[in-house]
Structure formats: structure tokens, C-alpha cells
Automatic annotation (TrEMBL):
<dbReference type="InterPro" id="IPR029033">
    <property type="entry name" value="His_PPase_superfam"/>
</dbReference>
<dbReference type="Pfam" id="PF00300">
    <property type="entry name" value="His_Phos_1"/>
</dbReference>
<dbReference type="InterPro" id="IPR001345">
    <property type="entry name" value="PG/BPGM_mutase_AS"/>
</dbReference>
<protein>
    <recommendedName>
        <fullName>Phosphatase</fullName>
    </recommendedName>
</protein>
<dbReference type="InterPro" id="IPR051695">
    <property type="entry name" value="Phosphoglycerate_Mutase"/>
</dbReference>
<dbReference type="InterPro" id="IPR013078">
    <property type="entry name" value="His_Pase_superF_clade-1"/>
</dbReference>
<keyword id="KW-0378">Hydrolase</keyword>
Length: 203
């Protein structure tokens, strides 16, 4: 079984360096173009399922990559980006001003990052739901290729899980750019990263 995990294409807020979280903004011209290039790259891969975050930026990317295939796009809210509460919709600079210590932890000391806001998630919350998603997907499908369209933090968490790393290593390279491809092979209960954050289709 292989999971072809893709980050959504670049959005308007990505270009403005605004954090999106559970909020949303449309794909840019570049984001659409890069998704089209990835669609061509994956054209010969036969997928048994397509599972997307319900966020429109992910769904739009999924529809582009699917192309003319008739396969339905399933949605799973466990693939949504981390909920960043009051930070959502703000630029990095705005967040640094309003919440400097917590933002410092988020960016440089992720194991010390903690949110008390009712709606906001901690990184451990994302780990829990992504592990749950992986377990259910492995039990449901067991074989075949599966296209997963999701978000940057979710993909970094998937890397942590596959490598059995702790949260303090979440921002280690490679960077997860828009439409980057990460491939996870699952065999006999073992999860192996075959490709991480590949963007060769953009070149």
C-alpha cells in the first residue's frame, strides 16, 4: 500500500505569508499551475482512492490532480490544517507582535508550544488525529495507491510518525512546499518514507 501525500497548491494567503489554519483562501495562478503539473506527473498512477482535507484549497488541488478520472474525492476532517485560533488570517509579523513568546516556541521550540485558546490546537492534537487517520486508512484499504491531499503541518506530522521522531524535530528539512509530493509505503505494519517533499514537477 502506498500513500501519495500532496500539500495543496499555493494560496493567496501563502503568498502574503498569512497563516491559514482552518480558515481558507483561493489558490493562486501559480498554485493552480503547479497542481496541473503534478497531475501530469501522476497521470500514469492508478489510484484506488482520493482522500482530501475538506478545506477548499485542498479540494481544489484534489480536483485538478484528479483531472478526467471519475474517482470520487472523499473528505476527512482529520486531514485539516492545525487550528491556530486567533492567529489565523494574520501575517507572521502580526503574530510576532501580538504573541511573541508563543510564536517563538511554535517556530523554534515546537515541543514547548502550547495554546490555551478554546479553538486552537496543540501539535500533539494534530499527531493524535493523524495517527487515527493512518490507522483507519490502513485497516480500510490495506493495498493499492491512495492520493491524500492535505496541509503542511499534517505532512510534517506524518513524517514524524513514519520516522518515530518527537515533536521537537517537526520543522526539520525537507520543507513542504505547495503541491510537494511525499510517498509513504506501508507494508507488514511498517511505514516507510520513499519520497519526501518532492517538487521536481515544478522544475
Amino acid at each position: 500500500m502506498k500513500l501519495f501525500v500532496v500539500r495543496h497548491g499555493e494560496t493567496e494567503w501563502n503568498a502574503q505569508k498569512r497563516l491559514q489554519g482552518h480558515l481558507d483562501s483561493p489558490l493562486t495562478v501559480n498554485g493552480i499551475h503547479h497542481a496541473e503539473l503534478l497531475s501530469k506527473r501522476l497521470k500514469s498512477t492508478c489510484f484506488a482512492s482520493i482522500i482530501s482535507s475538506p478545506s477548499e484549497r485542498a479540494m481544489h488541488t484534489a480536483r485538478i490532480i484528479r483531472g478526467n478520472q471519475t474517482l470520487a474525492i472523499e473528505t476527512d476532517k482529520r486531514l485539516k490544517e492545525i487550528n491556530l485560533g486567533s492567529w489565523q488570517g494574520k501575517t507572521f509579523e502580526e503574530i510576532k507582535e501580538m504573541d511573541p513568546d508563543r510564536f517563538e516556541n511554535y517556530a523554534k521550540h515546537p515541543n514547548q508550544y502550547y495554546r490555551e485558546e478554546k479553538e486552537a490546537e496543540n501539535l500533539t492534537d494534530v499527531v493524535t488525529r493523524v495517527k487515527d487517520f493512518l490507522k483507519d486508512t490502513e485497516e480500510k484499504y490495506q493495498t493499492g495507491n491512495h492520493l491524500i491531499i492535505t496541509h503542511g503541518v499534517v505532512i510534517k506530522v506524518l513524517q514524524l510518525i513514519c520516522k518515530n521522531y518527537s515533536i521537537d524535530k517537526i520543522w526539520e528539512p525537507p520543507e513542504i512546499e505547495g503541491t510537494s509530493l511525499t510517498i509513504i509505503e506501508i507494508k507488514d505494519g511498517e511505514r516507510k518514507l520513499l519520497v519526501e517533499g518532492d517538487i521536481s514537477h515544478k522544475e
